[in-house]
Amino acid sequence: MKKNEVPQDEGNLSKSNMKELMYATDENGEYTTALSTGWEPKTIALSNSIDDINERVAEAKSQVKNGEVSPIVYFMELHKMDVGILASYVEMWKWRVKKHFKPKVFKGLSDTVLSRYAKAFNISVSELKNFKAD
Fold first, then answer.
1. What ranges in the chain are assigned the alpha helix state H?
2. What is the distance between the alpha carbons of residues 59 and 94, in angstroms, rounded to a whole number?
3. pTM (two decimals)
4. Confidence check: pLDDT of 12 > 70
5. Contact 71, 103 (CB under 8 A)
6. DSSP state of 2
7. What CATH code would you report for 50-129?
8. How confident is the model at residue 14 (pLDDT cuts 50, 70, 90)?
9. CB distance 80 to 70 below 8 Å
10. What residue segments make up the domains of the chain, in order of their start?
11. Whole-number Cα distances in Å, 33 to 17, 19, 24, 40, 68
12. Has residue 15 got a pLDDT over 80?
């Protein structure tokens, strides 16, 4: 796209006075950079993704409150992780991490294991153990 055609739609970036660096061509057909405040399709897609993430976090919180899953699931969703990413952060097999999603198993975890999760979530072991989904 040409430099004068770089989108300047209202979006998440324009609300925070930020701009995105994009590549465009100048009047000589050479590649250059230009700043954009947003592009409507990208803003819609980003907004939908954020809504999906918020729904998943709320669902995980509800499941923790109902005793269906451990707080690990909530913090995993809150930090936008999946099982594979979390497993790599805590240096455990995915099947082991999934096992820790069970409240009964979670209650039996040692502080050493919980500290790996706490470090990945940037919280204390106490916060992880005593999380109340109210």
1. 12-15, 40-65, 71-78, 83-90, 94-99, 103-107, 111-121, 125-129
2. 21
3. 0.78
4. no
5. no
6. B
7. 1.10.260
8. low
9. no
10. 3-38, 50-129
11. 18, 12, 6, 20, 50
12. no
